[in-house]
Amino acid sequence: MVTGVFDAAVIGAGAAGMMAAAQAGQRGLRVVLLDHAEKLGEKIRISGGGRCNFTNIGTTPANFFSQNPNFCRSALAAYTPRDFIGLVERHGISWHEKHRGQLFCDDSSESIIAMLRRECDAGKVAWRMACTIKSLTRQADDFRLDTSQGEIRARQVVLATGGMAIPQLGATDFALGMARQFGLKVVEPRPALVPLTFDAQQWAPFGLLSGIALEAAVRCGSGKSRTEFLEDLLFTHRGLSGPAILQISSYWNPGEAIMLDLAPGKRLGDEWVAGKSGNRQALVSVLAALWSRRLAEQWLASEPGQDGTALGAMRLADMPDKTLRGLAERIHNWTLHPTGTAGYKKAEVMRGGVDTRGIDQKTMQTKSVPGLYFVGEALDVTGWLGGYNFQWAWASGAACGRSL
Ligand code: FDA
């Protein structure tokens, strides 16, 4: 039974879907927004530790990872962080900058969900929540959606069902399945902004350091593909996490190494050799002044000893220059081979997705199926940590909503 005929059906009432639906509805289109979840905007709710890091004022295309790096330019230029800040302020939501251009709500991410809901209401968007989409087909000039709440017909359809991160909150690969059904290419999806894991036996000594955080420079790749982040690093039982690792995880490919500088900005070898004369400090104390004592002890325990004496107990003055320089080199260039990631259950986003070479960058419409659009994280556009992924959701949603 046909239960509704619309100008546009938006599947997925997350960040990008609500933005697209609100914009189109406010232009006078009859829009329906469908989502299989019972609760609205779950990812927005949990984002930014409950305060939603809703944008980054420094957003540029360079903050995104894609096989088609220029694709995001047009939408990001047409809907900027300033545009979203303007919307937030019109709704009376107070915010603050936390770190490196990252903007958060002062109170709760609930206010962003409520704001998007009011924007949809202003566009008279119809809702179908806790609604399963059984199939999507194109017949003549219309799309037909067979849903648990009856059949819906729409002239245009927007796929805004996001990526696969956090399946426990209802994330699915629906958009990727639909892309394949309509003959579009998909860039292999993978968990991103995700902790990295290591061989259990090899990692065991460092697993004891779980909970320790420090600033580090983390890099992977070489030549043109070399990428580096200077952020905090966190030891966990299974491997490494923290912003530095989440960032590099989006660039890391299985089988590759990552390199860590655990004393960024310093030249420990030169410093130690120049200052060692008469320095009676034990090496472990020298390192403990740099990091935590636990990390200093563990690090030195894994280093080869010197003539039967544990390295940590040796005084700086008694250490040969070569040994000091070797130790410093390993601290500045700690090379690790992750065996994998903590997976979609712990990832913040999915990298890969619908290949943007089949999508118009100004409208988000597919080039091969008129009336079919993809927005948000479902596309092969992955932002860095720090509000960029929401900015992409708003910008791609707005680009689509303005052109439906
Ligand atoms: P989004 O995931 O928001 O929405 C997709 C919608 O589609 C959901 O409502 C879902 O229920 C629905 N759906 C899925 N499958 C469906 C199906 N088969 N049928 C019907 N409906 C379906 N980013 C950022 O910029 N700042 C931040 O602070 C954070 N913090 C953060 C924390 C955590 C823990 C995670 C997991 C992620 C973040 N992110 C983030 C990333 C950010 O949440 C994400 O990139 C955006 O929500 C993506 O917006 P979309 O609208 O594309 O998908």
From TrEMBL:
Keywords: FAD, Flavoprotein
Chain segments annotated as transmembrane: none
Domain RsdA/BaiN/AoA(So)-like insert: 190-349
Cofactor: FAD
Record Pfam families: HI0933_like, HI0933_like_1st
Superkingdom in the source lineage: Bacteria
InterPro entries per the UniProt record, alphabetical: BaiN-like, BaiN-like_dom_sf, FAD/NAD-bd_sf, RsdA/BaiN/AoA(So)-like_dom, RsdA/BaiN/AoA(So)_Rossmann
Domain RsdA/BaiN/AoA(So)-like Rossmann fold-like as annotated: residue spans: 7-402
Protein name: Aminoacetone oxidase family FAD-binding enzyme
Species name: Eoetvoesiella caeni
Lineage: Bacteria, Pseudomonadati, Pseudomonadota, Betaproteobacteria, Burkholderiales
